[in-house]
Amino acid sequence: VPVGSGPGYREPACDDLETEQAALAAVDYINQNLRHGYKHTLNQIDKVRVWQRRPFGEVYHLELDTLETQCYARDPTPLANCSVRQVFEHAVEGDCEMQVLKQDGQFSVLFAKCHSTPDSQEDVRKVCPHCPLLALLNNTKVVHAAEAALAAVNAQSNGSYFKLLEISRGQLVPLPASTYVEFAVAATDCVAAAVTDPATCKLLAEKKHGFCKATLTEKLGGEEVAVTCTMFQTQPVAVQPQPDAAIPASPAPAADQAAPAPPAAGPPAAALVVGPMV
Amino acid sequence: KGAQPGVAGSAGLVPPPCPGRIRHFKI
Chain B contacts of A39, Cβ < 8 Å? Predict the structure, then answer.
């Protein structure tokens, strides 16, 4: 930009159609590249600047607020059909910084950095004083509930043996004393009924994922587990233009996409992981 | 006292360009 010719960018309104189109393309990219946690939906566009790109196109620099939905990352349900996690369920928000190229009327993401944070305990308590709050994903009771629920699933499976991929949510319910947990599973090459050493079971090359919700209730002299799982159809690998730029390290605990599971320790909400990690 | 209705009126109608609307709820 020649000296004295202005800032070199324009600032459309955050609710302009062009801004919203760029933001929706950005959120779509985030969800297409999520490997952990839940899909997010656009909540508010905080800031936008549009830079001319040489020789062609424009680059939208966006700051977006998102909210976690109830759809697991690999759930093929269209985002429009995914319910937003409500405050009484302990909502989770995402803060994203995105760069989206618009060229020939098409949007493609150049850069993405997101960080997710659960709502404060005070906010949840304001609308629901007795609702269970999110627990740490490595909480002993949460881990035990997921493992017990998965054991119940495998005990009843007349097909594949399933392995735990990640625990995505956990809540400790005081009355009745119970633990609510949501977790992802994947089918292995073992038959559930014939497994002797689960450690030898390998995830199928064409991964078959499932998502489970379970409640483990503490009873006198034992415990009872109720679990429901949804298995997803095998998804074709999404072919997406990938960013040229390296994605800087997120301030949030981020999980490597290649890792089989997110860290057990860390905040209750998994960090959003988008784009190729460098 | 004289007023400047054009200025006051237009200032009241123009929404702030950013941030945009909240689609669900703010936390």
Answer: none
Closest Cβ opposite residue A67 in set B15, B20, B24: B24
CA distance B15 to chain A (A): 9
Q: Could you read off the pLDDT of A6-55 as tens digits, one per residue? A: 778 999 999 999 999 999 999 999 999 999 999 999 999 999 999 999 89
Say if residue A90 is exposed, middle or buried (CB neighbours under 10 Å; 0-12, 13-18, 19+). buried
Give the tokens for residue A33. 């590249």
Amino acid type, A237: V
Closest residue in B to A42 (Cα–Cα): B23
CB distance A44–B23 less than 8 Å?
yes
* Structure tokens, B15: 């929404």
Contact A92, A85 (CB under 8 A): yes
Interface pTM, i.e. ipTM: 0.79
CA distance A34 to A31: 5
Task: Supply A240's token pair.
Answer: 């997406």
Please tell me which of the candidates B17, B22, B27 has its beta carbon nearest to residue A13.
Answer: B17
Joined together, the tokens standing for residue A270 give 């998994």
Residue A106 neighbours by CB distance under 10 Å: 10
Fill in the DSSP letter of residue A84. Answer: B
Instruction: Tell me which chain B residue has its CA closest to the CA of residue A13.
Output: B17
- CB A265, CB A136: distance < 8 Å: yes
Nearest chain B residue (CA) to A116: B27
Q: Both tokens of residue A54?
A: 């040489």
Å from B4 to nearest chain A CA? 26
